[in-house]
Amino acid sequence: MTSPLRVLIVDDSALMRQLLTTLLAADPEIEVVGTAQDPFDAREKIKALNPDVLTLDVEMPQMDGLTFLRKIMALRPMPVVMFSSLTQAGAEATLEALEIGAVDFVAKPKNDVANAMGELAETLQAKIKAAARMRFRPRRAEAAPPPRPRPKIGRPTGKLLLIGASTGGVEALKALLMQLPEDCPPTLITQHMPERFTAAFAQRLNRECPMNVSEAVDGERIEVGHVYIAPGGSHHLELNRNGGHFACKLIDAPPMSGHRPSVDVLFRSGARTAARNIVSVILTGMGKDGAQGMLELRQAGATTLGQDEASSLVYGMPRAAFECGAVMRQYPLAKMGDAVVEAVKGEGAAASAAKRPTAHSA
Q: Residue 297's domain spans which residues?
């Protein structure tokens, strides 16, 4: 029998420590080996208890979660799942934590904490178990050199880019967008995130990436050189044809494939609307969201690309899409930008994958 995953909970709230302990202990595959009320307490318990995964509160007295996370990643790198408040400040801090090296996060409920936490039990348990299985790669202390600006595409192609991602997607999406030119095709993204987080994510990407990035607005006309991110938690994002142009459409509908926003919803809207003009990409993430939608895209004539296993933090969504035949070709994240540009221009292996099988084709 496999030993349970050993988890240490770090949170300054006694109520949260108890709730998290109760929720995680309900899973026989997880053992809460201890709790800590602040980073100083946590430091000693990490040494004594040797946990497999750490849950870490973003906001704590004496030493905030981000400062402690930097120390962990420098001295004792390990999988960390952040626990964050549903506020703008909490969202920004969580995105910074993911850049520092945290592998995932869970948002604290805003109201009726005890009941809401019960609803989050399955998600919390799944993220802890996924964190323990991830290809955990501590971030290098030195900053990576900025990528060289990519030459503009420079001519109208009529192509649209649809991207789906989940766990690990915050960093993967940034890496991909940094590989694309400032006149990238109109791009719609569904990244699994709660409310408030996608607005902060879009703002961060807009500051750092060569193109314009914003949270999608219902009815907004999509344009070359602009990326639109599905609002977290409240709506699905669809590609909609509005007369002679395309626009974002936000729909208030139940979760699909366990998520809202859902990658399947985005991809299926593309299959209905403009499949032969679409290049679609599925990146790192838990679960299967996006696989069936991407299969519909491929069957309708779109170019479909998937992140490969070696470069995925979690090879769940890309695997599901590849194994069901939805992905024409897989690429490491570092080469995905080249593949997208070639497909947009109608050049290279990505563009011709549908015409002839390759060693990497499904």
A: 160-352
